[in-house]
Amino acid sequence: MRVFRTDRLPSLSRVPKELGREERFCERCGAETVHILYRVPKKVMVVYVKNHPNNLHATCIACAHSEVLTGEERGRILAPPQQEDSFKG
Question: Is the pTM for the entire model greater than 0.70?
Fold first, then answer.
């Protein structure tokens, strides 16, 4: 039996969702480091909105510097993964 049911805890609806990790240049470190890519919900009145313009962040694992991803970079991360067509002939 589970003690906590995450689907019943409203506070967990605002927990950032990790989308992946990738090597990126970190301005603070001055080098290529691994960054965690995650989506952050935004509180509007009493509701959390998951899809808003500044919801995608990248945080450096080495120094914890975080930046908001926008534009083409945001679109690339949020785009559905492209499946390779193995039946090309």
Answer: no
